[in-house]
Amino acid sequence: MLASSCPFRNVESGLVPIRESFSGNTTASGKIAPSPNSPPEACPCTSLCVAVLLLPTLALAQARKTATPFTSPLIVAKAKLINQTAAIPKTTIFTPTQTGLYRISVYATVSVSDPSSQSNWNYDLGWTDDAGQQNAFTLLWQYGQHLGQFSNDVSSGDGGVVRVFEAKADTPITYDLFQGGGPPDNSAYSLYYTLERLE
Predict the structure, then answer these.
(1) What is the C-alpha R_g of the chain?
(2) What is the pLDDT of residues 105-146, one digit of tens each?
(3) Boundaries of domain holding 24
(4) How far apart are CA 191 and CA 161, in angstroms?
(5) For residue 60, what are the CA distances in angstroms to 53, 57, 68, 140?
(6) What does the alpha-carbon distance between residue 11 and residue 22 come to, in Å, rounded to a whole number?
(7) Same domain as 129, residue 34
(8) What is this structure's pTM?
(9) Is the CB of residue 121 less than 8 Å from the CB of residue 177?
(10) Distance, C-alpha 57 to centroid of its chain
């Protein structure tokens, strides 16, 4: 029985050896035998054993709830928009669930030029950091009459643009691409971007 293998039992005054609390007959060897009608003795060792067995399980469950850290950038959004002929209004790229450092890589090119075009295409980026709402206007731009890659805000003709920024949790990272400087024409552009979480 469980009671006979346990060195202690509960009584009102605390834990005492079982040999002092058995009620029953003395056997021929002088040992106290429990009464056949006595209920099983409650043992604190049982609760202790159960707790020890449950600890690893609870620790594993808690570990699974913890966010898994990553050692390399994680792509959270990307897009490829080919031969677009209309402007793109303010659009959410991604809404972070936690504050962190992000990096966006953007490339655009005029895929169809219009020699009579008087307009230009412009790419803007928006996000929110510790200071509040932030905007990077005209990160990339190109005339509708010029075939080829957009120029960035630093120099002309050297590919796309990369920007690193802090974004607050629950605030959207957005972009827009508008046509300015003239009426709509027959030019078209292609836009590519990838957004990564760095930490």
Answers:
(1) 36
(2) 999 999 999 999 999 999 999 999 999 999 999 999 999 999
(3) 3-65
(4) 12
(5) 12, 5, 13, 48
(6) 12
(7) no
(8) 0.65
(9) yes
(10) 24
Asked if 120 and 157 sit in the same domain, the reply is yes
Rounded CA-CA distance 132/25 in Å is 83
Which of 15, 48, 65 finishes a domain? 65
- Nearest CA to 194 out of 78, 28, 55 is that of 78
Amino acid at 61: A
Rounded to the nearest angstrom, the gap between the alpha carbon of residue 129 and the centroid of all alpha carbons in its chain is 18
Euclidean distance between CA atoms 142 and 125, whole angstroms: 16
Cβ-contact 190, 147 below 8 angstroms: no
What pLDDT sits at residue 19? 47
d(CA 189, CA 144): 8
β-strands 120-129, 173-180: how paired? antiparallel
Total domains in the fold of the chain:
2
β-partners of residue 124 are 176
Alpha carbon separation from 178 to 63, 123, 138 (Å, rounded): 47, 7, 9
